[in-house]
Amino acid sequence: MLTPPEEPAPHHRFSIFARLKSFTYAGRGLRALVQDEHNAWLHLAASLMALAAGFLLQISIAGWRWLVLAIAIVWLAEAFNTAIEEACDYINPEFDRAIGRIKDLAAGGVLIASIAAALIGLLTLAPPLLARIL
Ligand SMILES: Nc1ncnc2c1ncn2[C@@H]1O[C@H](COP(=O)(O)OP(=O)(O)OP(=O)(O)O)[C@@H](O)[C@H]1O
């Protein structure tokens, strides 16, 4: 059970510099994701291909909305999955059934996001592609 803290958390003043600095931390995290995670390379390739197809097929604003969402959900899931994996390895690098289950659950989230993104991409890009071919 959580016990209340002895003293209330110190009140930090709002600072635009602190907010801007947190953007740099987030950018550092994304750079680490792209540099170190092989799955992220696949996501990067898929994202670039989807963007290129969107431009080539001159999809509508509504189409772009779906494409941006599809790309974002995959990166979001991969970033959280990687964070969970690294937290698990930091907490317990040994073989542990509970760690395995936690990692499987996080990986399941990435799978759902990837399937949804593939379907969204297909539904968004296939109609303009077919309209050009046929
Ligand atoms: N410490 C552990 N204890 C038990 N099972 C683990 C452990 N680490 C990994 N596993 C199992 O192996 C699977 C893959 O884990 P891993 O951390 O290698 O993920 P990955 O997606 O292959 O990682 P990577 O980002 O290196 O590609 C997990 O989903 C889990 O089933």
Automatic annotation (TrEMBL):
The chain crosses the membrane at residues 40-60, 66-84, 105-126. It is found in: Cell membrane. Keywords: ATP-binding, Cell membrane, Kinase, Lipid biosynthesis, Lipid metabolism, Membrane, Nucleotide-binding, Phospholipid biosynthesis, Phospholipid metabolism, Transferase, Transmembrane, Transmembrane helix. It comes from the Bacteria. InterPro entries: DAGK, DAGK_sf, UDPK. GO terms for molecular function: kinase activity. It is a multi-pass membrane protein. PANTHER family: DIACYLGLYCEROL KINASE. Belongs to the bacterial diacylglycerol kinase family. This is Diacylglycerol kinase family protein. The lineage of its organism: Bacteria, Pseudomonadati, Pseudomonadota, Alphaproteobacteria, Sphingomonadales.
